[in-house]
Write a structure and sequence with these properties.
Oligomer: single chain
InterPro entries: 6-PGluconate_DH-like_C_sf, 6PGD_dom2, 6PGDH_C, 6PGDH_Gnd/GntZ, 6PGDH_NADP-bd, 6PGdom_BS, NAD(P)-bd_dom_sf, Pgluconate_DH
Bound molecules: NADPH dihydro-nicotinamide-adenine-dinucleotide phosphate
EC number: 1.1.1.44
Number of strands: 12
Keywords: Gluconate utilization, NADP, Oxidoreductase, Pentose shunt
Distance between the termini: 73 Å
Shape: globular
Function: Catalyzes the oxidative decarboxylation of 6-phosphogluconate to ribulose 5-phosphate and CO(2), with concomitant reduction of NADP to NADPH.
Strand content: 5-15%
Strand order of the largest sheet: 3-2-1-4-5-6-7
Protein name: 6-phosphogluconate dehydrogenase, decarboxylating
Largest sheet: 7 strands, mixed
Length: about 475
């Protein structure tokens, strides 16, 4: 008997994926560099399905039916290259290596090209949903060749999450497309988390609400259009009491947010592509600012505003306004992420369908949310919008939210409560809306000091003004 699929790298993610395949009736070959993990998996969970443990790479490869489907779930970076180098010589043309780790898409492009030369399919695959997702149904974003998806797709769709009967897995596009989309997913996740955190902070500091009360507000929001996994877990975290002190859990946690780097990759890549993902960037910066204890200590004595909180009617309506600001800012964050996916798709020739991406993000992954249906709908129309903001549903939502959104940003400034995510999102919205931008003045400055030239609104061509002489204009 031979295995349908093999998983190598049996730490938490690999074990859970292997179990997920087995629970769906697939025979799964399992392998790990340190064989003790392989034995432990089979001892503990062998009853869940049919596993074929292998202690050596050779035995593992030999146990796979052909064309072989080999999933690797190992540490990203050098270990991934090491594992590829170990297995590639044992494989035959047409075999597939699936990298489900969090690889950088540029590495995936390089690996795919190298393995293609050797006749092998390399399928860089984004997998979101953490440990629980891997076991019960993640959102799966496979790149690589169409041909490889024909052989792999049915197995991956079997183990992915499903929403309304549709699997949260689709072929994203060639080579690094899957890992690119996973990266942007994580960037959006950073932005979404930051916006939710700002909402909490504003409710707490403007209204003096306790964490437990704010948890209730989030629970209410989670029954409406903001319904999502992140809102749901936020309420859980805010409602949690620290057992040791009896204080709200959120008050005993050190307020320095960490990161593993995918948010940073998203912003770095966006800078290279020239895509303004300001909401995602503010979220990454907010985490890094929080970690600068020395700066924050030094700034403790800086003067703040005289206003301390909201009262009266302004206080009454504030929670509702924050909900609107959160929704509007979230739309902007997703619009920026979709723009980045489209720009990457164009740059690398991936032909990614943003509507399909939104569809597979509806379940399994960290940013799963009711609202993603609206993005799928927006891109399912014959004429796809240039930006998500101009899709009918979103234009209406932004229009309805904008007054409240502006008041929330104003209030944050007046009370001295930082809301970089809300402010950046609103500035992006207003910048796109503006008929004229002060970029014209920036062009003038550039031409003045560096003769960088400018284009005119009324004539084609590039021009330079002789700023140091008679200020006459010359074609450049
Ligand atoms: P780790 O990232 O901690 O990786 C541990 C695994 O990698 C072990 O099986 C280990 O083998 C193997 N490994 C490390 N170095 C080598 C090497 N040089 N040669 C062979 N094998 C090696 O495990 P996780 O399960 O947390 O994550 C796996 C991958 O999935 C990572 O790329 C991660 O970024 C990604 N991921 C993780 C998510 C999560 O929520 N944790 C979510 C989505 C993706 P050994 O036992 O012998 O040390």
């Amino acid at each position: 008997e031979q295995a349908h699929i093999g998983v190598t790298g049996l730490a938490v993610m690999g074990s859970n994926l292997a179990r997920n395949f087995a629970r769906h009736g697939h025979t799964v070959a399992v392998h790990n560099r340190t064989p003790a993990r392989t034995r432990a998996l089979v001892e503990e969970f062998g009853g869940e399905g049919h596993f074929m443990p292998a202690e050596t790479a050779e035995r593992f490869v030999a146990s796979l039916e052909r064309p072989r489907r080999l999933v690797m779930m190992v540490k990203a970076g050098a270990p991934t290259d090491a594992v590829i180098e170990e297995f590639a010589p044992l494989l035959e043309p047409g075999d597939m290596i699936v990298d489900g780790g969090n690889a950088h898409f540029e590495d995936t492009r390089r690996r795919e090209a190298a393995l293609r030369e050797r006749g092998l399919h390399f399928v860089g695959t984004g997998i979101s949903g953490g440990e629980e997702g891997a076991l019960h149904g993640p959102s799966i974003m496979p790149g690589g060749s169409k041909e490889s998806y024909e052989a792999l797709g049915p197995l991956l769709e079997d183990i992915s999450a499903t929403v309304d009967g549709t699997p949260c897995c689709t072929h994203i596009g060639p080579d690094g497309a899957g890992h690119f989309v996973k990266m942007v997913h994580n960037g959006i996740e950073y932005a979404d988390m930051q916006l939710i955190a700002e909402s909490y902070d504003l409710l707490r500091r403007a209204l003096g609400m306790a964490p437990g009360e704010i948890a209730e507000v989030f629970r209410t929001w989670n029954r409406g259009r903001l319904e999502s996994y992140l809102i749901e877990i936020t309420a859980e975290v805010l409602a949690h009491t620290d057992a040791a002190t009896g204080k709200p859990f959120v008050d005993v946690v050190l307020d320095q947010a960490e990161q593993k780097g995918t948010g940073r990759w998203t912003v770095q890549t966006a800078l290279d592509l020239g895509v303004p993902v300001s909401g995602i960037a503010e979220a990454v910066f907010a985490r890094s600012l929080s970690g600068h204890a020395e700066l924050r200590d030094a700034a403790q004595g800086l003067p703040g505003p005289s206003a301390k909180g909201l009262t009266g009617a302004a206080a009454e309506r504030f929670a509702d306004e924050v909900e609107q600001a959160l929704y509007a800012s979230k739309i902007v964050a997703y619009a920026q992420g979709v723009h980045q996916i489209q720009a990457g798709s164009q740059e690398y020739g991936w032909d990614i369908d943003p509507g399909a991406v939104a569809r597979i993000w509806r379940g399994g992954c960290i940013i799963r949310a009711r609202f993603l249906n609206r993005i799928t709908e927006a891109y399912a129309r014959e004429r796809t919008p240039v930006t998500l903001l101009t899709a009918d549903y979103f234009t209406e939502a932004l229009g309805a939210a904008q007054d409240a959104w502006r008041r929330v940003v104003t209030t944050s400034a007046e009370l001295g409560v930082p809301a970089p995510g809300f402010s950046a999102a609103l500035a992006y919205y207003d910048a796109l809306r503006s008929e004229r931008l002060p970029a014209a003045l920036v062009q003038g400055q550039r031409d003045f000091f560096g003769a960088h030239t400018y284009r005119r609104t009324d004539r084609d061509g590039s021009f330079h003004t002789l700023w140091g002489a008679d200020r006459g204009e010359r074609p450049a």
